[in-house]
Structure to design on (347 residues):
């Protein structure tokens, strides 16, 4: 496993009170300034991704893959052989080398001195993936991650940390150890599937996973408390960042569908704002107000879902949901497959 440690050590003025954010840390590359808030773990990720050290690591890793060095080179050669000449630039995306970048910054503030560490899994591959699948690429990604707020996901597990970036563009989910292991096992196949699907003009409903990170906060000296993340103890969080495909939409109703009728009905005020309805609610709604989809749109959806579920089956993922949002302003259904983060365990 390739692993790079990129230390950066600074000692800002005690005036940088943590409740105001760690605002006196050095600016990133090209003068990009990110303030770290301990209760907003995405701000720590944004700071790391904006740093010159991280960008240098990614560029060196990409160069290594393209030059055919080591394991990265072997994956590059395989990808290159399978692609037309004009698509060689996508070979970084198809590299299976586990190139994980570790970034560390020390804040010596007397108010709450801490060591903040971020591990970016498959750093060069995710960098290339965001260039292809996120408008604005890494610059937009970092800008969104710079601020987030904890979010109570309707229908989600109550003991799992969820957040949204404050611009509503990205969703953050805390991963269990098993979920992280599962994702890191199949993410190279995920990159290849979506990359080749795009080149072939095949549509996909899979939600875009835009990064997987570990955030580790170690407080030095006196305890630092407060907030949902900070508790006075060291914090280690495994986080998945994915697109919010309802971003910029006016969604009136949301359905979380699994194709099952068992325990799939919301009884308590299904018309409440933000309520996530289930399979039986959709069947009931269609009796009085059917959702009509034209044959062309239905055919496109059917092909995408068939292809996506075939891919998920191939990588051993059997539990996921089809999330459907009803945008009455544009008279459209916004559809995506989510929660495909855990493989079936053998035995």
């Amino acid at each position: 496993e390739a692993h790079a440690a990129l230390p950066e050590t600074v000692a800002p003025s005690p005036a940088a009170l943590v409740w105001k954010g760690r605002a006196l840390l050095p600016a990133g590359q090209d003068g990009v300034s990110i303030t770290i808030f301990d209760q907003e773990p995405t701000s720590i990720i944004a700071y790391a991704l904006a740093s010159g050290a991280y960008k240098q690591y990614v560029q060196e890793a990409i160069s290594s893959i393209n030059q055919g060095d080591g394991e990265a080179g072997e994956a590059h050669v395989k990808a290159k052989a399978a692609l037309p000449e004009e698509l060689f630039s996508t070979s970084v995306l198809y590299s299976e080398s586990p190139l994980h970048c570790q970034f560390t910054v020390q804040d010596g503030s007397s108010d709450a001195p801490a060591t903040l560490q971020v591990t970016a899994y498959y750093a060069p591959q995710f960098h290339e993936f965001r260039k292809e699948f996120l408008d604005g690429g890494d610059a937009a990604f970092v800008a969104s991650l710079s601020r987030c707020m904890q979010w109570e996901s309707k229908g989600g597990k109550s003991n799992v940390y969820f957040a949204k970036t404050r611009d509503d563009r990205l969703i953050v989910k805390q991963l269990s150890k098993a979920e992280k292991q599962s994702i890191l096992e199949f993410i190279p196949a995920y990159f290849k599937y979506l990359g080749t699907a795009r080149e072939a003009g095949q549509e996909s409903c899979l939600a875009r996973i835009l990064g997987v990170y570990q955030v580790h906060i170690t407080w030095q000296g006196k305890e630092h408390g407060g907030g949902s993340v900070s508790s006075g103890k060291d914090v280690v969080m495994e986080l998945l960042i994915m697109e919010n495909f309802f971003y910029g939409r006016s969604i009136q109703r949301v359905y979380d569908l699994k194709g099952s009728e068992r325990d799939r009905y919301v009884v308590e005020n299904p018309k409440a704002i933000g309520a996530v309805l289930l399979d039986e609610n959709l069947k009931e709604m269609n009796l009085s107000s059917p959702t009509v989809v034209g044959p062309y749109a239905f055919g496109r959806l059917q092909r995408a879902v068939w292809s996506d579920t075939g891919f998920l089956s191939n990588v051993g993922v059997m539990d996921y949901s089809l999330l459907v949002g009803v945008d009455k302003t544009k008279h459209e259904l916004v559809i995506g497959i989510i929660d495909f983060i855990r493989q079936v365990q053998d035995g």
